[in-house]
Each structure stands twice: as C-alpha cells, then as structure tokens.
C-alpha cells in the first residue's frame, strides 16, 4: 500500500506523543528526529525533509501547544497541515479551454505509464459525458500506436493516427483540426518518451507545444523511481513549463517520497494518482486526504465518492429493506461482493478507513482480492434453493459445492458459518429496530433521536 512504511513509522511516533499528558521541547525534538528519519527512509528529498521538520518544530514548541491539555493531538494537527501544504495544499483541477477543444499533452519518460494514463484520463472524461479524441504521437516505440488503439477500442474512444511515417508535430496539428471538425471537446496527445531525457526529445515536445498550444502539459511520473522521479520532473518542467503531474504505480510503492517531493522541488502540482492497472484505477490527487491517509486518519471522502460512483442506488435501497426485514440471502451477499469489487482493491479500501491498520489482527493481514473470487465461486456452485435456504445444505451437498467451486469443504463450512452469524445479527438489529419504533410513540427516545 502507498506510504505504508512512512505511515507506520509516523503513526508509531505520534502514538507515543499521545500517551504523554504534557510535552516538553525535548519530547518534540525526539519526535521530530523520528519524523525526519521516516521521511528520509521514504525517499523524500533531503532539503524538503529539512525544511518540513524545521517548520513543524517551530510551530510545535509554541506555548499554545506545550501548555495544551492534548499537546500530542496539537502536534499531529500541525504535521497534518504541513504535510497537506507540502503536497500542494488544495486539490489542483485540470484547466478547461473556454473554446473547444481542450488540449492535454501527455509527456514523460518511457515506461512511466504515459499511454495507459492517457486512456485513463479519457475514461474519466467519458464518465463526465465528454467526447475525447486520443492522438498517437509516439511513432518511435514499437507497438505504441497499437497500444493506444487497443485502449481506444476498449473505451469506444476514437484514436487519431497517421502511422509512424509522419512527424509527431504534423500528427498533432492535423489531430487538432480533426477534433474541431468532428466535435471533440477534448484532445489527449500521447507523445513519445525516451529511456532518459535527451535534447531531441525535448525539441520535439517544444514543437508540439508551440503547434497545439495545450491547456495542460501533464507529466506522467513513475512513483516507484523515488528521487529519480523528482529529477525527471525538474528537467521536464525547466524545458516545457509543465502544468501538472500524474503519479503512477502508487499502489505498488511503499515509500511514496516522490509524491511528497515533486511539488516542493518543482512547484508542479500533482493532479492525479494512478492506483492500479485497471482503466478505472486513477483518482484526483487531494493533498489533504493523502496527508490523512499517511497519518492513519483514513480517507472517508474518497471512499464515499467511490461508493457513489460504483454502487447501484436501487440495489442499495432494496438491500436496506431486506436487512431490516432479516430477509438477506446468499444471492444478496454475492451481489454485495460484486459491488465491493467495483470500489477497487481491498487493501486500498481498508487504507481509507480511519485507524484500520491498527485494528488488532489486521496490521499484518494479507488482504487478498482472490478470496472474494473463492467466495463467489462457492456461492455460484449452489442451487437457487441452497442460496435462499442455506439450512438445506447437508454434508453431501457441501462436498458437491466444494468440488464445483474448486475449494475445500472447510472453506464452504466457514462461509456458511459466517453467513449464519451475519443473519443472526441482522435479526437482532431488526428486532431492536421494531421495538424502538413501538416505544418511540410512548415517549421513549434514544440519545441520538431528534
């Protein structure tokens, strides 16, 4: 999970501060040493770390903090605010041209995920009912044009290409004319990358920039390259005046130093984060939410947004009714699993829940999405009657279900036991709700009732 190592170190440090009734300057100094080491280990730029620690320490040794009844909480609040500021303060949204089409130029080194994230941006625009056009300007990398065309087919988004015999500058110019003629409101230009920054690459990008006058020049950076990502961002920014960055592979990087350094070193705002391989695995970068994740406070707002975008409202209402009436079946359970899968990898979802990484038994738990697949296979191997009335599933049926799902009888037993406990709990809540409803008219109120 992104920032895992940094998050664990910082949270351990602040838990020790929380345990102290009063803080001295030496307590703050010791905590700041731990913060400094944690940031350096996360591959954050040395100068950025030095400035960050100095700012936090200066604020944390003030009278308001040291004489507070909850000084530990004050220090955490200061760190949260400074982390947010370090990553850009507020969310930076994409620029939109007052006159269509809006042009986004994607740049970066080869292998950073530029073509893939061009497709991901097109998908986001599609969801917002826009009409994007993908432009294949990478004529050098073998199969780059084909990769973009495959993405276009997958998304049902047109791809403008003139093959690899025409110059990228001319392709970009003609693509812009094509977009104007066919009513595309967005043009996403996938430019060529190199294995390293060279003069020829930059000259070509400058010419494309001059020709199409893009509204955004988005630098796609591989977060797993650590400090190299910051160096790449600095070089591109110097030459092209990059307007924003997209950090890719944040799902696989446990350090995350690039995210904390790019904005401070280059002044370039991070606008999006790539969080997986799927075409939907991209999200707007919110500095405040990312700071909360790092400090173990979760990211409930992003989780809610994901849920609103993925979960069927009618199904949710029907589920609420079934749970209220204790009428929840294995078919309903299967449906819920499928909706949860749409939210993204389970470890990322859990990382958005406040304090989840500190819950006993979950700190080192391997949250495996394949487990959901096994549960789905077990339920799908049941007959309609078995899903509605699990009580009929005897020993021979359990063996048949296990064989049909490629699992063991023990796994089938475990699922049935867990489902039975879930149903009991729902019946209890349903009974309590009915009793409370009856008593409410007699003047009985729960503390949270209006």
Number of strands: 8
Class inferred from helices and paired strands: alpha/beta
End-to-end separation: 41 Å
Topology as a string of helices (H) and strands (E): HHHHHEHEHEHEHEHEHEEHHHHHHHHH
Radius of gyration: 26 Å
Assembly state here? Answer: single chain
Strand proportion, as a percent range, falls in 5-15%
Q: With helices defined by DSSP (H or I, 4 residues minimum), what is the helix count?
A: 20
Overall shape: flat
Annotated CATH homologous superfamily of the largest domain:
P-loop containing nucleotide triphosphate hydrolases
Main beta sheet, described? 8 strands, mixed
Give an overview of the whole structure.
The chain has three domains: 83 residues, SRP54, nucleotide-binding domain (Four Helix Bundle (Hemerythrin (Met), subunit A), Up-down Bundle); 197 residues, P-loop containing nucleotide triphosphate hydrolases (Rossmann fold, 3-Layer(aba) Sandwich); 133 residues, Signal recognition particle, SRP54 subunit, M-domain (434 Repressor (Amino-terminal Domain)), CATH 1.10.260.30. The longest helix has 32 residues. The C terminus is likely disordered. The two termini are 41 Å apart. Helix 10 links the parallel strand 5 and strand 6. The chain has 20 helices and eight strands. An eight-stranded mixed β-sheet has the order 3-2-4-1-5-6-7-8, sandwiched between helices. The protein is flat and about 70 Å long. By secondary structure, the chain is of the alpha/beta class. Helix 3 runs antiparallel to helix 5 and helix 6 packs parallel to helix 7.
């Amino acid at each position: 999970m992104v920032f895992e190592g940094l998050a664990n170190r910082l949270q351990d440090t602040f838990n020790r501060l929380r345990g102290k009734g009063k803080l001295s300057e030496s307590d703050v100094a010791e905590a700041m040493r731990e913060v400094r080491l944690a940031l350096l280990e996360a591959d954050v730029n040395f100068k950025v770390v030095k400035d960050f620690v100095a700012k936090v320490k200066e604020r944390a040794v003030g009278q308001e903090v040291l004489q507070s009844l909850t000084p530990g909480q004050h220090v955490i609040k200061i760190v949260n605010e400074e982390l947010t500021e370090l990553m850009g303060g507020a969310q930076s949204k994409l620029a939109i041209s007052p006159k269509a089409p809006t042009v986004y130029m994607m740049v970066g080194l080869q292998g950073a995920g530029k073509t893939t994230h061009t497709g991901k941006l097109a998908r986001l625009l599609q969801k917002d009912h826009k009409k994007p056009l993908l432009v294949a300007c990478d004529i050098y990398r073998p199969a780059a044009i084909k990769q973009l065309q495959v993405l276009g087919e997958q998304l049902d988004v047109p791809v403008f290409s003139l093959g690899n015999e025409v110059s990228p500058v001319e392709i970009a110019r003609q693509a812009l004319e094509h977009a104007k003629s066919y009513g595309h409101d967005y043009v996403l230009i996938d430019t060529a990358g190199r294995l390293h920054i060279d003069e020829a690459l930059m000259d070509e990008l400058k010419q494309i920039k001059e020709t199409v006058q893009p509204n955004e020049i988005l630098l796609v950076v591989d977060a797993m390259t650590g400090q190299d990502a910051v160096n790449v961002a600095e070089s591109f920014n110097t030459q092209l005046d990059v307007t924003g960055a997209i950090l890719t592979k944040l799902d696989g990087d446990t350090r995350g130093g690039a995210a904390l350094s790019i904005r401070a070193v280059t002044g370039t705002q991070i606008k999006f984060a790539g969080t997986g391989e799927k075409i939907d695995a991209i999200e707007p970068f919110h500095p405040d939410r990312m700071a909360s994740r790092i400090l173990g406070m979760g990211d409930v707002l992003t989780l809610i947004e994901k849920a609103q975008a993925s979960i069927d409202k009618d199904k949710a209402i029907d589920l609420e009714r079934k749970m209220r009436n204790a009428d929840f079946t294995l078919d309903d359970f299967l449906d819920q699993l499928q909706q949860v899968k749409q939210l993204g990898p389970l470890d990322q979802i859990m990382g958005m829940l406040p304090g989840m990484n500190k819950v006993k038994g979950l700190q080192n738990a391997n949250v495996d999405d394949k487990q959901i697949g096994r549960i789905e296979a077990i339920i799908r191997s049941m007959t309609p009657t078995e899903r509605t009335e699990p009580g009929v599933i005897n020993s021979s049926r359990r063996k048949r279900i296990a064989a049909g799902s490629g699992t063991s009888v023990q796994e089938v037993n475990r699922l049935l036991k867990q489902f039975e406990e879930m149903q009991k709990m729902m019946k209890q809540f349903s009974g309590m709700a009915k009793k409370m409803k009856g008593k409410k008219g007699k003047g009985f109120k729960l503390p949270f009732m209006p």
